[in-house]
Design goal:
By secondary structure, the protein is mainly beta. Helix content is 4%, strand content 38%. The protein has two helices and 14 strands. It has helices spanning 190-194, 223-226, and strands spanning 7-10, 15-26, 37-46, 52-62, 81-83, 109-111, 114-115, 118-119, 123-128, 135-143, 146-150, 177-187, 199-205, 216-217. It has a five-stranded antiparallel β-sheet with strand order 1-2-12-4-3. It is globular, with a radius of gyration of 19 Å. It starts with 6 loop residues before the first strand and ends with a helix.
């Protein structure tokens, strides 16, 4: 099978996005785990004249095959946002924010959201719901011999490379599956941010029952070491 999904986020000087390039599945044995199990396969860097890509490939297996989320999977528990409310149950707006609320940023606040099918003409405090995603990616940079997490969600980027891949099976009938997922992460800023740094990427996936897989890590690499040869 071959799928191609893309979502871009536009910032002042960087473009971010991610895409599922493809997956495959075959008939596996019957003793596969109910919690998804993954293995790291490869990490490649593809440079272009525009947006560059990091291609992360994983091997997966799962007993029920309940991997992937459809575009229509936006109701709880897969809803993207959780709306903060005060003690009276009212939405917390920026003009009435409490002292512990963060300053405005595009992670913690949304403008004119639709809540219960009604447009709220205000800026509302929210929390991102991690269960809207089914692939979770963390970046680490080596500094003084130790890896430290590079947090995309912090200033100045306010973004994430967590994302969603589509349903592996089009049926809800449980069926054991295994195969590969290749996940593309787009940015015009890989080289300007990481240059010659030593990187590591940690990743997990999650099934629709909210079972989180084991976490796997890439090798410690530089962009130059993983650049795909033309």
């Amino acid at each position: 099978m071959y799928l191609h999904l893309m979502r871009l986020k536009n910032y002042s000087y960087l473009l971010f996005g991610f895409a599922l390039l493809g997956y495959s599945c075959i008939s596996p044995p019957e003793n596969f785990p109910s919690t998804p199990e993954i293995e790291f396969s490869s990490l490649e860097y593809v440079g272009t004249s525009g947006q560059d890509s990091l291609l992360l490939t994983l091997n997966f297996k799962d007993a029920e095959g309940d991997l992937g989320l459809a575009a229509t999977d936006i109701n709880p528990p897969f809803n993207p946002l959780l709306y903060k409310r005060d003690a009276a149950g009212a939405l917390i707006t920026y003009s009435r924010r409490p002292s512990n609320a963060p300053s405005y940023n595009p992670i913690d606040w949304v403008i004119d959201p639709i809540v219960n099918n009604a447009i709220i003409k205000d800026t509302v405090w929210v929390e991102k719901n991690e269960n809207q995603y089914n692939i979770f990616v963390r970046f680490f940079i080596k500094r003084n011999g130790q890896f430290r997490e590079f947090r995309w969600q912090d200033p100045p980027f306010y973004t994430t490379f967590n994302g969603r891949f589509p349903r592996i099976l089009n049926t809800n009938i449980g069926q054991a599956v295994e195969g590969k997922i290749t996940y593309r992460m787009l940015s015009s800023g890989w080289e300007s941010i990481f240059r010659n740094d030593t990187l590591r990427i940690d990743v997990q996936i999650q099934d629709r029952a909210l079972n989180r897989s084991n976490e796997v890590s890439s090798a410690s690499v530089t962009l130059k070491q993983i650049t795909r040869k033309k």
